[in-house]
Fold this protein.
Amino acid sequence: MQVIKSTGEKELFDKEKLCSSLEHSGAPKELAKTVCESISSEIDPDITTSNIYRKALSYLIKEDLTLAAVYSLRKAVSALGPAGFIFERYIATILESYGYKTKLNQIMKGACIEHEVDVAAEKEDTHFLVEAKYHNEQGIRTHVPVVMYAYARLLDIEEAENKKERNKFDHKMWVITNTKFTDTAVRYAKCRSIKITGWNYPEGDSLEDMIVKNKLFPVTVLPSVDKDVLDIFSKNNIMLAQDIILFNPKTIHEKFGIEKQLAEQIYKAAITMTK
């Protein structure tokens, strides 16, 4: 049976691929198998992969909210921009949870031009200039020109810094994206000692891993949060599920004008995901 991808292309439905994605999110093998079997029996010819994703997500929400959060995490991060959140701020928040001191949108002089650094991150004697590359479309990859551009900026800033009468320049470049890197981009980054972090890269320490390890789920991952609520959270700088549990359902209802029952659902989901 054929399914329609987000690009409009058709491909054969791959049940094993669906099972693998469920297991990757942490679902036990038996649960993944049950969900795969159920969805396989429900799908019609030319169903979209988005509809298959929503069906799988609805099963996980009933079983385990945290599993559902991990399974939907990539789409949730992609939804940050349209929801009004700044990706650079999210990256800074993640880095801070790992012990970095961060500053946003720093202007640094290069030998040729000035550069705006998305995030300046410092930890002990390590100083990173972070290039935060965000995409809200599925299937996009980060290519080698992005890494080459980051390296060129590093060289320009390094040349200017080394002319000053003080300690030698000690910054490093770090490219962080919510997409996957192409193989060429990875090879170039290794060759030029550029630290890169993307979706599923590097293994065990990818952006996804960094989020899940410290439970830094964005509010866009919460199943009961609709566009109106996201607008409210964005205006009040509530970006993480962790931010929600600083309040209680009554405060969420009264302070933000969110319907009482919905406020309770959002709070309960946030507690479950972050406990």
